[in-house]
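step=encode ok
step=design start
structure_in=
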């Protein structure tokens, strides 16, 4: 039930084959072309990690720096409402390797916006500070650094670390420091709703083939 896909083959640093298959939009029968934009989901974590490591290489960030607390990188008021004092043990490296202390036994706060909205009595769409306040209501699930458990929330925090340390918003920093040196000019942060798609961005469809994903 895949509606469309894009394939590229690279050899020795050069694209030797690029082709689109299926439809970018089923209703209009618009075919996928090699230039169409697709979301890359969690592949973006590698991009975020690259941005972090560039700051480390530049000497303006350390992997052992604490993220929270009075001496932490994210010491703004919005990041100071945690109830569990173990938050102050979390380092940049722990966020990178998913050992910050959040586990999958709770719903992923980045993918249960309706639950977060009801819990904190805030209307959709939510801001990231709204999600932070929701997460900080609970204790960590394990001692930071003790083990690893995949965390989308932790990687969004790394984006905030990039913003704070580089003094640029995340998208601007990544474009300037990661994409531009590689000649990439058509990568963007995606928007939430179909009407806000970027030019040449494909439509997205339910995994079960039940139509366009609304948000």
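sequence_out=
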């Amino acid at each position: 039930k895949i509606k469309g896909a894009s394939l590229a083959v690279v050899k020795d640093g050069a694209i030797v084959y690029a082709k689109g298959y299926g439809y970018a939009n089923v209703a209009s029968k618009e075919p996928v072309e090699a230039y169409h934009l697709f979301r890359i989901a969690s592949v973006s974590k590698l991009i975020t990690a690259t941005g972090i490591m560039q700051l480390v290489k530049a000497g303006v960030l350390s992997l052992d720096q604490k993220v929270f607390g009075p001496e932490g990188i994210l010491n703004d008021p919005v990041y100071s409402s945690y109830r569990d004092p173990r938050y102050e043990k979390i380092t940049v490296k722990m966020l990178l390797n998913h050992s910050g202390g959040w586990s999958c036994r709770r719903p992923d706060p980045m993918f249960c916006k309706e639950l977060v909205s009801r819990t904190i009595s805030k209307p959709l769409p939510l801001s990231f500070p709204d999600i932070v306040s929701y997460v900080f209501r609970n204790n960590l699930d394990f001692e930071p650094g003790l083990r690893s458990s995949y965390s989308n929330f932790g990687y969004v925090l790394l984006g905030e670390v990039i913003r704070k340390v580089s003094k640029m918003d995340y998208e601007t920093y990544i474009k300037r420091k990661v994409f531009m040196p590689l000649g990439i000019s058509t990568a963007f942060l995606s928007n939430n709703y179909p009407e806000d798609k970027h030019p040449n961005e494909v439509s997205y469809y339910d995994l079960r083939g039940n139509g366009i994903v609304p948000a």
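step=design ok
step=annotate ok -> The CA atoms of residues 12 and 182 lie 15 Å apart.
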